[in-house]
From TrEMBL:
Keywords: Signal. The keyword Signal applies. It comes from the Bacteria. It comes from Prolixibacter bellariivorans. CDD domains: E_set_Esterase_N. The keyword Membrane does not apply. Residues 1-21 form the signal peptide. This is Esterase.
Amino acid sequence: MKTHLTILAFLLLLAGSPCVAQTSQSAIKEDFKSSSLNQPGKKYPMVNSQGYARFRIEAPDAQSVVVSLGLGGTKGGTPLTKAKDGSWMGTTAGPMDEGFHYYHVTIDGGVFNDPGACNFYGSTRWESGIEIPAHDQDFYALKDVPHGNVQQILFPSKSTNSVRRAFVYTPPTYDKDVNQRYPVLYLQHGWGENETAWFNQGHANLIMDNLIAEGKIKPFIIVTTYGMTNEIRFGGLRNFDIKPFQTVLTEELIPYVDKHFRTKADQAHRAMAGLSMGGMETHMITLNKPEVFSYYALLSGGLYKPEEIKDKSKVKLIFISCGSKERPDAVKNAVTALKEAGFNAVSYVSEGTAHEFLTWRRSLHELAPLLFK
């Protein structure tokens, strides 16, 4: 329980990291362009070259309109001002971190999505999304390279008396050589999200396609599924019971994937990773089931201690990452302790980011070449 609460404290600290800096409005450049995540034909929201975001909401009868950014709207609000035409407009108080951000609009106390933006599942609901172009976005860009396939699968779950959903990424080579088998990475989302997050918000498939095209990784399969986390209210993670999801993952989903896909179905060729609360799930399941996974990765999702791992011979890699605006020293110190204890451990810190998807996109980009060597 002590270890569980330590991870809980770490996750709560991460989730509170700010993503908007306070700067002078007079310094804003008027070079705004429509966000890449806008609905077809919609001009707003807009983003400028400095990372400021500008919003326009049509609500002529409203008395108050506020845009709330970040997971659950916890990163601060941007009040909009009513214009003569009845629309409401406003610009963030400062530049936002590069990468993807959730947001919603509060109109006279009611919470709504922005009709101008595409929606993404986060904060236990479909939220609007905005993308601040990153200087290093090339690694997750859609390029003219061979692309893998992301498919939905439905698998039976006796433990939950239901049919559950997962998504499976197979690399571009999967359908070309029917005799080739592949390692598998089971990749978990964070609290408030679901199995769509890593491919919609995270661009995991594009990251993989680009790395494979560059010859930087050996192709492998990625599987994402719902981690059964969202029934727990944010801040109440101490009440989360890993056992039901552990059963679904290790006794139902993995056997299904191994039966229906050409996997290398053994511990040596299986990895588990997760972001935020998905990292907490990864931490607990890999410790509980060392015979299932040999590669472990926590992305803004807690730490491993050497004494927690009973048989180091079963562990091929421990990867721990976070954003530079989270707790990088804790991550680095944990990895140093693991190395001193004889583990193959790697730390990664995403510069200039907090508890957000650019941190996790970059983390996957760093992790993938280390897997299944």
